[in-house]
Amino acid sequence: MQFIENDKLKLGIHSKGAELQSVFHKQYGVEYMWEGNPAFWARRSPVLFPIVGALKEGTYYFEEVAYRLPKHGFARDMMFHVEEQSSDRILFSIESSPQTLLTFPFRFKLFINYLVTENMLHVTYRVKNEDKKAIYFSIGGHPAFKIPLAEGTMYDDYALYFDKEETLYRWPVSKEGLIEADPQLLRNSPGRLPLSKALFEHDALVLKNLQSGSIALRSDKTAHGLLFDFASFPYLGLWAAPGADFLCIEPWCGIADSVQTNQQLIEKEGINTLQPATVFEKTWTVSFF
Fold first, then answer.
1. C-alpha angle 196/14/225, rounded to 5°?
2. What does the alpha-carbon distance between residue 6 and residue 272 come to, in Å, rounded to a whole number?
3. 184: Cα within 13 Å, side-chain hemisphere
4. What would the pLDDT profile of 42-51 be if each residue is shown by its tens digit?
5. Which of 11, 58, 61, 281 is the most buried (most CB within 10 A)?
6. What is the Cα–Cα distance from 19 to 13, expressed in whole angstroms?
7. pTM for this one?
8. What is the pLDDT of residues 181-191, one digit of tens each?
9. Which of 48, 51, 45 is nearest to 270 (CA)?
10. Which residues pair with 284 in a beta bridge?
11. CATH code, domain carrying 283
12. By three-state DSSP, how is residue 99 classified?
């Protein structure tokens, strides 16, 4: 485990998957991250790369060759190298290898940077194309935040508040983990989504075309919560394992395959194209209060 901290926050990050394990607020004495109870879900904040979500039949095609990738890709299970580290910042990396080229035929280097400033966490994904051709990929976050955050509160006491008024539609997820063709009205509200464990009985809430760039998790019964900024990410997922005391707020540059997909990688919804010798970079932030 690697640690970074300042006078307010202390973070623990595991080299496997460069996965965030803990965000502890020193002044409040509050742990904000899910503890990873394997009875519900053993992960805490996996990095999703080079795909987000599931592929139809676990397969995509590139230049008429079939390749297989597991749901959310392989980065979350790889050991990352620490490139740089200071008291309040750490930079991890992985790169393509003979093994990754079997399932993802592109040469790349992936950097994940964690930085704490005041009461804020900054997470930056940087993908560098080290190939002689364009590469095609998706990337996203999957952090799980503990709910409830304070004694005397319950899961249903919390709600999500979008920074703009939203008519919320969800794109349902099929039994195979694919995105259905037609959205369903989730809530016609001024940007408030009350939380309940029943909300996730049918898998994740997949949200597209949001006007908002940030979302707050809070309760009227406690001063503790968080503000999550995902402004540069085109998709947002919300998910919790059945019966578990957490909420995943997932900023995505990419999305699971549609039920109508032709499985061609370069035509996949949300796919990112990166030309040779160029870099793709996205950052999400969380303020803890």
1. 35
2. 34
3. 10
4. 999 999 999 9
5. 11
6. 5
7. 0.96
8. 999 999 777 88
9. 51
10. 123
11. 2.70.98.10
12. helix
